[in-house]
Amino acid sequence: MKVKKNDTVLVLTGKDNGKTGKVLRALPGDNRVVVDGVNVQKKHKKARSAQETSGIVEQAGPIDASNVLVICPVCGKATRVSYAVVDGKKVRICKKCKMSLDVKAESKKPAKKATAKKASKKKSTVEEA
């Protein structure tokens, strides 16, 4: 499937035509995606315990993946997706600007700052003793 979780997409058809949103879930088995704020459905929820409240909950329903276009994070345009092999990995490429669509995923790797702080605290306690 050419659409992945956390992609920003443009809806092409249906009652939400022209809306953009973030993909919350990708369902490749059904070729469907759940987009935030698109195909909103109301679900009646019954309280299962005394602490819970009953009510009508709105949730985003799935739409077909062929009805959305990925918005390129580099050029900002809705584009089709092609593939290329870079450094032995298959990556998604924007058809318009020829840049990688997987740039966000690579740049969001968490930095290991927490371990550096712990190490500095241990050194200060050793110096005091």
Structural features, described:
- With 129 residues, the protein is of the alpha+beta class.
- It contains 2 helices and 10 strands.
- Strands 6-3-2-1-7-8 form a 6-stranded antiparallel beta sheet, with no helix packed on it.
- The chain starts with 7 loop residues before the first strand and ends with a helix.
- The model has no long low-confidence stretch (mean pLDDT 85).
Brief summary:
The chain is α+β, with helices and mostly antiparallel strands and 129 residues long. 16% of the residues lie in helices and 38% in strands. The mean pLDDT is 85.
Could you give the topology of this structure?
Elements: E1 8-11, E2 20-27, E3 32-35, E4 40-45, E5 55-60, E6 62-64, E7 68-71, E8 78-79, E9 81-86, E10 89-94, H1 103-107, H2 113-128
Antiparallel strand pairs: 1-2, 1-7, 2-3, 3-6, 4-5, 7-8, 9-10
What is the oligomer described by this structure? single chain
Question: What is the number of E strands?
Answer: 10
The N- to C-terminal Cα distance equals 59 Å
Strand arrangement in the largest pleated sheet: 6-3-2-1-7-8
Radius of gyration: 22 Å
Shape: elongated
- Give me the number of helical elements: 2
Summing up helix and strand content along with how strands pair, one would put the structural category as alpha+beta
Mean pLDDT: 85
Proportion of beta-strand residues: 35-45%
Instruction: Characterize the biggest β-sheet.
Output: 6 strands, antiparallel
Give me the strand/helix succession.
EEEEEEEEEEHH
Helix content: 10-25%
The poorly predicted ranges are none
